[in-house]
């Protein structure tokens, strides 16, 4: 088991704050909006490891996941493409499984406070039990098909569950955006609020949930993600390998 002190200052791109059992995880890059990087030691690696520790800290009763500034996660900076080889891809393959599997292993409710555009790994927000979006938020998968990369790192599993197969395939193959109000209509966002109120609203919901019995919260989360975990178990690793093969082909290797 872990306690907050053992991981609070470990990750340079994740800021932790906890009050009354409610843990806020805020992703950032140098204190500003988070930039998704997959090089060793970057956010791709940090989040999967952090989710494991958060899930094994009994001091946590609810998690709020949010971004920084005006974006949840909208930019990518990957400098390691030229050095890509099978060993590098194994690292990404393992981190990719840890990222989603460890997120789903967290046995307490997760609230996403989507403070702006979520164009990279938007599934991290939408896999949350309660998704509260800023009116400036929008959702897309711009890190894969728009750049010629196979969308195989779990987005192929989750978005088809969330949107249905046809809408999801269009979403993943085009990189088209779904604005917050449309996301509310589609049902994968619970609330849309002004951008400057999104985090406060997440804390309000979290404090309300925190009044409920601890084991009720934990067993509810476990029961509600079981089906998602089963689909990830079947298809996440396969999709990651297909994504890797596509990247090697793209690089001419």
TrEMBL record:
InterPro entries: ClpP/crotonase-like_dom_sf, Enoyl-CoA_hydra/iso. GO terms for molecular function: catalytic activity. Signal peptide: none annotated. Belongs to the enoyl-CoA hydratase/isomerase family. This is Enoyl-CoA hydratase/carnithine racemase. It comes from Sphingobium fontiphilum.
